[in-house]
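Good day; I would like, with your permission, to put a structural problem before you. What I wish to show you is a protein chain and, alongside it, a tokenised description of its three-dimensional fold. Thank you for your consideration; the sequence and its tokens are set out here:
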Amino acid sequence: MLVFATEPAAGTSSVFTIVYIVILAAMFYFLFMRPNKKQKQERANLMNSLAVGDEIFTAGGILGSITRIKEHTVWVRISEKCEIELLKTSIGGRNTQREVPEPEIKE
């Protein structure tokens, strides 16, 4: 029988495999699981801290201010005479930017 010199010893192959799996699991956790958990926590904090009068934007790009809050929905005033009811899950975030008037172009 021929024995090749490149064959690893019986125990070393399983040790390298276990170390490789542990490294892959750690990379998966730190690259995918941990950031996702952090984003979920920030989103939950946003939903819990909503208050009447907050300026928000929706996932669809609608800007407005909250007028009423229910358990799963909020009422948002988007113009002088128009209020809409939205699911809290459709809120994209707080609107921290104020509209800046565009400069007039002189010809």
